[in-house]
Design a protein that fits this description.
hydrolase; 9 helices; 21% helix; 7-stranded mixed beta sheet; Metallo-beta-lactamase, Chain A; hydrolase activity; alpha/beta; RibonucZ/Hydroxyglut_hydro; 284 residues; Competence_DNA_uptake
Length: 284
Amino acid sequence: MQNVLTIICWDVQHGNALFIKTPGGHSILSDLGKGSYSSRNTRFSPVNHILTRSKPKHIDLLILTHPHKDHIEDILSLNRAKVNRVILPVHLSKKDYLNARIRSVDKPIFEEYHRYSQRSKTTSKINFDEVKFSFFYPKEAGRSRLNDHSVVTVISHLNFRLVLMGDNESFSQKELLDNASFRKLTKNCDMLLAPHHGRRSGFVQSMIDHLNPQITIISDGTPRGTSVRNKYATGSRGIDARSRNGIRTIRRALSTNKDGVIKIEVGTYRGQPHMKITTKPSGS
């Protein structure tokens, strides 16, 4: 393929972590979960893996959807990298996330998040090459419901749109659906990163009906009673995906727990827009 946008969705246990590389070589991180089920390494650091293997000169953009540990646990690994821009929910104050419930051993993680929050500004759009990043900031929920303050990112490249929902639950999803700009940009999208790890609390039928994705990616841990991945599969149209052993099948939903690291490539193939999806074990 040519003119390729690459998105790596890491297997980080029950967290979220994505590495995005634009056709022009810009490097973007979206959330900083840590660990791996498929390689049985709870200390696996996607950030260290990227900095060692890909060796980017800097991180052009860091997106942190919200300040929960499973989305920022790897943040201290960024000390060895230069980060140019930061997107996160700046309307949240330090007392909203760094409080008595945070264990002492985890406080450096949240202190580092706060340091990055000092650099962030509310921005609606950022372009890298021909790739467009659009951001939506739900903020009507109470501050104790941090999931409902997750930044939503919509990535547009060629005629494809990929929606990263953070951990937004029903309250904020209804707020988003009331936003005409969000509805226009996300209707019949191509890929959805499921809200709140594909759990029941993040599933809103009216949202999945609106998004109507080709495929839903679920970044999750071991399925439990709260998982509704089958509902996301039912609500997705399906697309050809290649598994780690080379088998190609039509998939409606993929999960990091079952499928490992998920790689999405969007570009042109034989002059036509094309999206390619493959899975592989962590760390490979």
